[in-house]
Amino acid sequence: MNKILLMILQRFGLGLLTLFVVSVIIFIGVEFLPGDIAEALLGQGASPENVAALRKKLGLDVPAHTRYVNWWLNVIQGDFGTSLANGRDIAELIRVRLANTLFLAVVAASVSVPLAILFGILAALYRNSLYDRSVNIITLGAVSAPEFLVAYVLILYFSVTLGWFPSLSNVDADTSFFERLHRVTLPAVTLTGVILAYMMRMVRASIINLLASAYIEMAHLKGMPKLRVIIRHALPNAWAPIANIIAISLAYLVVGVVVVEVVFIYPGLGQLMVDSVSTRDIPVVQACSMIFAGTYILLNLTADIVSICTNPRLLHPK
Amino acid sequence: MNNRLLEIRNLEIDGESDEVWHEIIKDLDLDLDRGEVLGLIGESGAGKSTLGLAAMNFVRPGCRIRGGTIRFDGQELTAQSETTLRKLRGVRIAYVAQSAAASFNPAHQLIDQFSEIPVVHNVKNRQDAEADAKGLYRRVLLPDPDAIGYRYPHQVSGGQLQRAMTAMALSCRPDLIIFDEPTTALDVTTQIEVLTTIRDIVREFNTAAIYISHDLAVVAQMADRIMVLRYGELVEEATTREMMSDPKMDYTKSLWAVRSFKKETETAATEINPVVKVDNVTAGYAQEDILKNVTFEIHRGQTVAIVGESGSGKSTAARVITGLLPPRLGNIQFNGQVLPKSFKARNKDQLRHVQMIYQMADTALNPRQRIRNIIGRPLSFYLNLTGQKREERIRELLSLIELEPDLYIDRFPDELSGGQKQRVSIARALAAEPEFIICDEVTSALDQLVAEGILRLLDRLQREFNLAYMFITHDLATVRAIADNVVVMLQGEIVEQGPKTDVFSPPHHEYTELLLSSVPEMDPDWLNELITHREKHGVMASTSTS
Amino acid sequence: MTSEQATGFDPQVGRPRRSRLQSALREILKAPIAAKFGILVILVYGFVAIFAPVITPYGETEIVGPEFDVWGEQFILGTDGLGRDMLTRLLFGARNTVGIAFITTCLAFVIGGLTGLLAAIYGGWLDQVSSRIVDVLMAIPQLIFALMLLTIFGTSIPTLIIVIATLDATRIFRVTRAVSLNVVVLDYFEAARLRGERIFWLCIREILPNITAPLLAEFGLRFCFVFLMIAALSFLGLGIQPPTADWGSMVRENAVLITYGDITPILPAIAIAILTLGVNFLVDWFLHKSSGLKDGH
Questions:
Q1: Is the pTM of the predicted complex or chain greater than 0.80?
Q2: How far is CA C261 from CA A156, A262, C85, in A?
Q3: Can you tell me the distance from the alpha carbon of B52 to that of B62, in angstroms, rounded to the nearest whole number?
Q4: Which CATH number covers residue A109?
Q5: Which of A251, B221, B466, C184 has the fewest CB atoms within 10 Å of its CB?
Q6: Which residues of chain A make contact with B168, given a CB cutoff of 8 A?
Q7: Hey, of A149, A154, A301, which one would you mutate to test binding to chain C, going by the most C CBs within 10 A of its CB?
Q8: Confidence class for position B538, pLDDT limits 50, 70, 90
Q9: In C, residues 257-276, which contact B (CB 8 Å cutoff)?
Q10: B-chain residues within 8 Å CB-CB of A209?
Q11: What is the DSSP letter of C265?
Q12: Domains of chain B
């Protein structure tokens, strides 16, 4: 058991290290800006005095490493600084939007993950059947379409033609839960469609791989019923690959959210980030990147830990 | 009472590859009585495993039974539903697979995988099943039989897993067990013990068995009757003794005869100075020493065989000599000169004189190069041969290895058979005009007839060019055939070395004795005699069951 | 005559040698409908991309009519918000969007493929260092990383190509390293190393010819990925910038029409989907084919 704990701690440390490196990259990247933020903000015609004043105001007059340490100290306290575009507190700005994004992601994930696992396993079990072949074509199609195509087709049909759902998913603090659910339906369906296809393909491939093992053939030769072979012999060995697939897909979902939020003008983190990139509001972009990267790292870490915890070789050491 | 247990008639099985169906089993009949052991023998691709599985009316994915009947205990299996067949499998017909390590589910304890058969089939309840498992574990001589079942497959050695699988096959006391090469993956000394266990248990429970193997000597110990298969067809069928003493068909005779090759004369060292000297070498990976203080010499025109089981360090010795693994201590001398430890530091001439031939001819030749370039590269690289001269030399080398130049020079390796590929490997080594060649298990991946051809070729070339060979092998029959000197290795150390006649005749070193006596011989009584002998002298407990 | 031949051991002797091109053509003729569709799509897109200036009725950025004109004889697919011909811009999009994605993928392959090969051959610290760098880079979601870098370096086409190629090179590094490692452990590679061959020979003659199939498949997949990524960035207004005709930004520029039930804005998106689908079909068949051949051995 100690070995497992050690491995988990090791992965955890590795995750933290990655996060640290990511933060350095995010931070250093800004240092490469031609000129600096102050010049960028004020434009080329600004007087040197004005630039110097703004530098001081933004804290750019202290050395980079000090700024980096200060930035981290602030981030740990939940302070991401203020937006360059409108001077608002970034933490405040992000909190609401993060909640919105998570809401959308959770709705999409809770539909797509179970469906993907179920359909993926079915496709693997009935390999090369008509069902499997059509699933292959359909999922390939879904994987090939850009998210915004799926989104606009849904809008065209369910919003413009049928009028069932709004084409704009604007929500605010006063929107009730069910109203929220109604408004995020189309973005959630868009995300689900894309993720589902990805996940199903991966689940199918890994289950097929698993079913080709010698011990599965042995189970059949022992006369075990089909269902028992799957539940008792295949499933305990499938957790690691499936956890991995879920982590990868959720990570993909976190990113896919960006485009979908823009299409539906949904007030989430992705929308905020895209706006900030256009206005080159660097502190906001930094904050958003950190949050996205952090989530991504956390998801991969979880998958690693699941596969460690379900590996019989590690659970029952020699 | 009808004594017939299994009756297969006109069986035809097809296999699919690349969307084309081709025949694996062609119009085959098979009969098996209760309590009888039938040996199925044949080379790779003969259809042995497919036929064995067909006895339970089971085909692997990508195969199909096209015709014929399979009658088991009066019941026609091909007409049965999947449910009926399922109730038969594990209960009345059981299967023991080649690789026990892969065939046990890594996620469950051994005893769980044992008990589920009687429990799921409603033969016994869980408690009785576990008690029975422990009894059988004891019976198959597993250490600590009451506790070992609660271990997971990866916690148990290969030989033990194979015993546990035999025990598992017996869980419902089946009428028939199919053994599919159960000892092929094991070392010779372990193989003996598993063979003995299997044979005793089959006799004790009076179970009928189909014993599949490519190793004739092994089958001779196990079977009452033998069927020889080739290309999915029956070549010959007879009782074991009859088959051993009086084979009828040419193909069977050739199988019997392959071990007859023997080097004409043994070469004693003619010169005082060796071509290669491995001088007190210690080498290994990370912290572990795989080779410990190893010293031996190889003289011109001589073959030194390095013998040992897996993990003995014999392949590591080759890696040290070629410079792939620089030794920690000691050195390699070539014609009295110390070679740089790493091949990267050796010059072209030093590299040229040490050539290597590999076990797997499939992976030893670049599949994207034509034979012309494979053999031609050392010519241009070492000897600066170009154009017409190079072409002529390539043709000369092809003739030397008995391949018609016009036919083969433009081919890719996958357009050659296994034996032909191995010949091209030899030509590539010869092209460098070396003084010394390392042969790493060069015949063990080949069928017996082909292997013999390769040995003859190597022997002829040795005499023609006065080459020094180092033969790495676990197969003592090969050693008997070609070696002048023998080095016996165990766990990284040399146990015994000297001229073949000395090493192979008594008195032996204890381990050499164990190794030599464990190699199955073409004599149906060999195993019996060996067991009696060992029981008398108490050598049964071996090194490799740990 | 060898002993194998004498005893008829070699079922393959006398198998006719066929030229690569011939056998490739034969395979394509035998291919399933989906794969043929993929080939057709790629050929058509390639043709349009090369001959866009010749086959389009108007100039790429030429304002030729009223804003948002409907489909008609003069403007087959109508005009966009600035009065430029939709069909013309759609056809030019093949050149711009696909061309940029193609160049990016090629660059990514040069960077990732080369480093992956060297990491596999040399091993040791070079492999360790480059693998750890790639691990870290891959721990950041690509789109987010791209957005960040584009904020910093600005959104010009060269920046776009370099940023995305660098990010995508990480995946190619992993794949190339993995498939090369499979070759590096084989005996013929060891034989070549022991012969004393130089790194150039090892890469070009021993490894590359044996990993072309998986790399080719990977090229298709990476192209799809890069293509969709650039389209997404352009759609977000952060990729290919106006007035260059590009499918991603065309969707965004004309999105407002969708609320009126006009499907014109999604035509470029469909163009994207068809190409990715075509490439995916082709790769799918190719992978099936090359793994199927392995089973046959």
A1: yes
A2: 6, 19, 20
A3: 16
A4: 1.10.3720.10
A5: B466
A6: 222
A7: A149
A8: low
A9: none
A10: none
A11: G
A12: 4-256 (3.40.50.300), 276-505 (3.40.50.300)
